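Data deposition worksheet. Section B asks for the primary sequence of the deposited chain exactly as it was used as input, without tags or linkers unless they were present during the calculation. Section C holds the resulting structure in token form. Section D is free text for depositor observations; keep each observation to a single sentence. Incomplete worksheets are returned to the depositor.
Section A, Depositor: J.P.
Section B:
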Amino acid sequence: MKTFQQWALATVLLGTTFLSMAQTDRVGVSPWGPGDEIGTLNMMNEGTKLRVLSRISSGKTYDLSFEYYVGMPSFHSLGDPSYQYWLTHTPHGTIVDNPNGLGRKMNELVSYTGDAISMYTHMGTHIDALNHFGLQGKIWNGFTPEEHLGDKGWKKAGAETIPPVIARGVLIDVARLKGVKALTNNYRITAKDLQQALQRQKVALQEGDVVLIRTGQAIHYGDAGKFLHDFAGISLDAVKWLVEDQQIMLLGADNLSFEAFPSERDENWVPVHTYLLAEKGVMFMELMNLESLAADEVYEFAFIGSSLKLRGASGSPMRPLAIPIH
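Section C:
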């Protein structure tokens, strides 16, 4: 079995070749107009939000995010920076340095701690913006790097454009369907898997849903090596069923790349990332903690999530919540 590092290197080396194979695929043109930067999130409006919020049946809230910490899983082998945390001020250091000019007595009385972080925007629980992946030199809605990408980030479809998401959420627990704690060996989830899981859960999808896919990989989050090794993910066949047949609005999963790794490749396939972001204008969330929802068998809920407004960025940290609905 190839290591994650070998898969990652192969993906980088084959990326250019693969794009040249996908000559029949083109970036999507938005039905919401030439200025659209958020794709299917346009399906939300005040009415759809109120409809799901009015169905909340309890105050119980599920936190679908992971903690950020030094050593957390990320694509380091691709050259992405790891999560870094450091203290800028400590109680004792403030006494010694007296940076506020208040003197030793005051600094001994009132302690002070300050800190800072540095991180890659696609680590931890996060959402991918539509500028993250492109096709044939363009991103969603035909925006180009020549015209819209500056030294300080994208001028179009950046993470700052992503609105707060409030919608009906549905968990599809594929790991439970298969009777395992976590799917393994780069298993590619099919449309049939999703359909069978929904049937078992007695839940039907609706237009404008937020659909979250559980592979079970979240149980390995505390072990970066295991979390990134041979993890399962969704197939292009399955996302096409969700997007084209079910008209979902937003997707999410508990692994780091949403799709299985490496991406599917032949003359008729593009990566799931490219299909969703560049062709269909569908954003998705990665590294979601779906274990508590699955344990309580909560399959339908009000999904509430908001990301940081990072101007021009291709992704942003997110704190998604789920509240059961009747």
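Section D:
The longest strand covers residues 165-173.
The domain at 24-74+121-324 is CATH 3.50.30.50 (Glucose Oxidase; domain 1).
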